[in-house]
Amino acid sequence: MDSRNITIIILLIAVLALAVGSGVLLQKDLSQFGKAAKTEAKMEAVVKSLSSKAVPSVVAFGEVSKIDGRNITLTYNGDSVTVAIKEDAQISSFVVPSGGGAGKQTIVPFGNIKNNDKLSINLKVLSDGQLQGQSVIILNSSN
Question: Which CATH number fits domain 58-140: 3.40.720.10, 3.40.50.300, 3.65.10.10, 2.40.50.320?
Answer without folding.
Answer: 2.40.50.320
